[in-house]
Every structure is written in C-alpha cells, then in structure tokens.
Design goal:
Layout lengths: L1 H17 L14 H11 L2 E2 L6 H14 L14 E4 L5 E17 L24 E5 L4 E10 L3 E11 L7 E10 L2 E7 L24 E11 L3 E8 L12 E3 L6 E9 L5 E15 L4 E19 L2 E11 L16 E2 L7 E2 L2 E14 L2 E13 L9 E16 L2 E14 L4 E14 L1
Length: 440
C-alpha cells in the first residue's frame, strides 16, 4: 500500500511541475480533454499530395473513422503521420507504425511475463527470482490504413496491423486485419464482447485481469440510431480452452460460431452504458461412453464510462458467465472453458467465472493524464478442489502519461498483483514500468 501511495503522489505532483499555461481551448468547460487530445493527433497527420482547405477538411472527416471507433484500444497506434490523399479527396492511404519500449522492475516476487498477469504469479515464491529487471520492445509494429468515402459503399476503412509481440516477444505476428464498410466489419478484429472504452489506460500491455479481451475472425454489424443508441451483433469464429486429459475426455474441433451482441446508450458528453452478451457451444468427446457432448457457454457484461467533469472519466465493468473463461485476460492463460466433473470420468462442465474493473482517469492537461484502477477475476468451480489451482487474482494500477508531442509519448506506472489458490496459498508481486512510444 505504501508503494501505491507513493506512486499516486508522483501522479499528482509531476503534472503540477510540468504544467504550462493552458490555452483557451483547454479551459473550455464544454470540451472533453480526451477529445482535445484526439483533435491534436488528427492535426498532426499531414497530407502528402494536396493542399489545405477542402482537402484538409476531407482528411479530418476520414480520420474520424479511425479515431472515433468504439473498438479502438488505448494500446493501438495513432494514425500515420503522412497520408496520401486522392485527387478528389475521398480516399486516403497511410503507412505508419510505432516504436514502443517498456522497461520494468519487479520486487517481492517476480512475474516471468512481459505482461503483468496475476495468474502467472509464482506460488510459492522462488527465492532466486524475488527481483527482476527487464525490458521489451513488444508492441513495436507497422500498420496500413485505407480510409474512404464512396457513393455506393459509404464510409469504409481497411486496416492491417502487425507487431513484434509473438514468439519470445519478438516474433512478428498479425494483430488486426479487417475491413469496415458502413455498419459492417469483417476480418480479424477485437471481439464485440470487449468494451475497450470502459477499460483504463495502462502501460502494461495485458491490462486489468477482470476484463474480457480477445481478437477473433468475425463478421459484425454495428448500427447507431436515435442519436444516443447503438446495437451490435457478431458471428465470431470460436477459440476454445478445454481441460481434456486425452484419456477420459477429448476436446472436439469447434464447429459452431460464438454469437455476441450488445445494446448501448450514450450521452452527449461521451458517457455510455453497455450491456453485452455472449453465447457459445463447447464440444468435447466422452472417451468412456464414446459420445460427443455439446455444452452451452454464455457470458454477460455490464460496462460504463461516466464523464462527470471534462477532465475526469470513471470506468466500470462487471462480467460473469460459464464457459467464457478464454475471453478473460487471467483465466485465458489456462484451460477453464470446460473442466472435469469431480468423480465422474468422461464428464466435463462449464464453470462459473466473474470479473470486475473500477477505475478513474484524470486529465491535468489534454496531453497529461493519469489512471488509477482496481480489478479482480474470480473462478467458481462446483466443488472446491483444495489444491494449487487458481481461485482469484487481484490487479491494482496507478500511472501517468505525458504526450510530449502528439507523436511522442512517455508513461510511468506502478502495479500490484495477487494470486490466491484453492489451498489458501497466495502470492503477490509488485512492478514499476516505464514506457517510451513514438508513432510515425
């Protein structure tokens, strides 16, 4: 706790030291600081071919498709610095990237991961790994963005992103690859079950352990209506994590897509309340009875962002379900979608799991902001196994970010985590992280 208080003090004092005189734009009570920050990013994108005036206005309208996206994540790169604009200004192509470097120091228990994942906290602690100093350039990558408007297609965007966060945190892998045309999106994208806007910004690439975060190949429909309402539904290709031993049970190849939907109400100041649902079919084979079984998995999530002040955002996520563990950031590290029924060979079932995230974001200026958040993920099997399996994990974070320029960002963060097992053994870990991110 004393470490958390120290970091919170730094998060408050540092902006007061560097804070310069605010511009009239930044003192406008009607302007949300987050929106001002996005406008500065948009203004920092330059046209390669073409002048100002109408062409600049056309580019800004196209960039709205990029930045004002309900599934845009804080970790995603910013729009390319240079955009090639077509002669009639209805098509823009950009090639961009980011260089992201994170350094971190663990003490009182080291987590053997770049991401701060409570599930990975060692129990018991290894005396040889009580402290660790490391760094990673995972998250560094390239992307291609095509933005356009067509009389037949309407607004559309094609997006491809790949970064060096694969094998050994250096392998090059696809992060996203999708096309959005009007209300439709198809490709490899963020699941409809994740509310990225309700998640606190973190230096840590994994983020709070109580969120549902996943990327899937999907087809999604999202429509805004009556000014404040949004509805979305998607068919997503399944990715399952089933605890089958190969002797009594065996995981079957998935053949039924996951169905996800949400209904959202949004206020004029950017606040929103969203109810999301997930329905899936999990299939396994009972090798004892020589039969295949289909188990229904489901998930519900209530998420919100509230903006009580132009400088403040409050976040909240509550989720629960059965057979949806692979969607969560903590339980997704194991095989918890289906687990064995105690004392019944050949039988599996979908256990309960629940997650919670609460947090606050405060803008000292449009380019200096801080987050504090708390998260918990809990696992509820039918019977207490009284063993070393995961029972719950806790995640607490306090940080500060500074956009030195719209393309040059630094961040500093303190993280505290805890894991508890069903045999009442527990372990904790502490980490401080620093980040340097340059977008181009």
């Amino acid at each position: 706790m004393k470490h958390l208080l120290l970091i919170l003090s730094i998060c408050v004092v540092f902006p007061l030291v560097v804070k310069a005189e605010e511009t009239p734009e930044e003192t406008d009570e009607k302007s949300m600081m987050g929106d001002i920050r996005i406008e500065k990013m948009k203004d920092n994108t330059h046209i390669v071919f073409g002048g100002e005036g109408e062409k600049r206005d056309s580019l800004e309208k196209l960039l709205n498709l990029f930045y004002y996206d309900q599934f845009r994540h804080f970790q995603d790169p910013r729009a390319p610095y240079f955009m090639f604009l077509s002669k009639n200004a209805d098509l823009a192509l950009g090639v961009g990237g980011q260089v992201k470097v994170r350094g971190y120091f663990d003490w009182n228990g080291a987590i053997p991961e770049v991401g701060f994942v409570p599930y990975a906290i060692p129990i018991p602690k290894n005396p040889a790994d009580m402290k660790a100093l490391s760094a990673s350039a995972s998250g560094t990558g390239l992307f291609f963005t095509l933005l356009g408007n067509n009389h037949l297609l309407g607004n559309f965007m094609a997006y491809f992103q790949a970064d060096f966060s694969g094998y050994n945190h250096r392998g090059f892998r696809i992060k996203k690859a999708y096309v959005t045309i009007k209300d439709w999106t198809a490709g490899y994208a963020t699941t409809t079950f994740e509310d990225t806007q309700a998640e606190p910004s973190t230096v840590d690439g994994s983020g709070p352990n109580g969120i549902n975060s996943k990327k899937s190949v999907l087809v999604r429909y999202l429509h805004n209506f009556k000014k404040h309402w949004s509805v979305a539904g998607s068919v997503e290709f399944p990715q399952e994590s089933i605890s089958a031993d190969g002797e009594h049970t065996e995981a079957c190849s998935p053949y039924v897509p996951d169905l996800v939907a949400f209904l959202q109400y949004k206020w004029s100041n950017g606040s929103h309340l969203r109810l999301s649902g997930l329905l899936r079919t999990l299939t396994y084979r009972d090798l004892v009875a020589r039969r295949n079984h289909n188990i229904t998995g489901w998930g519900l999530q209530l998420s919100t962002v509230v903006n009580p002040l132009p400088t403040m955002n409050l976040f909240g996520i509550l989720s629960t379900g059965q057979g949806h563990a692979s969607y969560t950031t903590d339980l997704g590290n194991g095989d918890f979608d289906l687990i064995p029924v105690p004392d019944q060979e050949g039988k599996l079932y979908a256990p309960w799991a629940a997650g919670i995230v609460v947090g606050m974001q405060y803008y000292f200026k449009s380019n200096i902001f801080s987050n504090i958040a708390f998260s918990e993920q809990t696992y509820y099997p039918r019977v207490n196994p009284h063993d070393s399996s995961y029972k719950y994990g806790l995640y607490a974070v306090a940080n500060i970010f500074w956009d030195i320029t719209p393309r040059f960002e630094v961040g500093f963060e303190y993280l505290h985590g805890k894991r508890k097992n069903f045999n009442n053994e527990s372990g904790s870990a502490n980490r401080i992280m620093a980040m340097l991110n340059v977008s181009f």
